[in-house]
Amino acid sequence: MELPVHSAENMMALKHIGLALGLGLVSCSGSSSSPVPGSSEESNSVKVPPFSNDRTPSPPPGAVPDENVEGPGVADKSDASTPPRPECAEEVEPNNDAASATEFTGCIVGKLSGRTDTDYLKITAPENVTDMIIDHVETPGTINYSVTIPAGGGGATGSSNFNMSFTDKAPKTKIKAGQTYLFALKWEGGSPGTTGAAEERPYSVRVTFE
Fold it and tell me: What's this model's pTM, rounded to 2 decimal places?
């Protein structure tokens, strides 16, 4: 025989079932909003690198670099504070006597064209100097150098008995500021080379004052 089911009991059972379902949904919703410990959370945000004045944008692949644009890390190697070194002056022919001596200021080049050729050069010492240093190079062969004060002092007073001669390294010599000095270059020794070859002796002379 079946027992009758009362409607009040049915209503109470339905309330309990509804309450249990409601609590379950709330529990699931709260747990899904909190990250699981130890798990990595995925972010859709874009990370932007910090701005810096030292960063140079990279050219797109296949781009040809502009030669007119200086690349990063390239320094200007030119030194505007260093003036270009002047070239040596050249002797001016005829300069075979003291009256027609070629004047120079620091460096001069030329050549003796034969055994009988003599070249005269002259230089004037600047103010506030006391010494003269002479460097010379000639090849092939040897040249005799003599340094004197021109007749009449060359427009300046000085020792009339100044006379220096050398074929090798010239000594450092005491001189007078503002004085003009006369160089005479003469052939020294035998032939510079093979018999029949052109006889000439190129030279360069550099004078420094201290």
Answer: 0.56
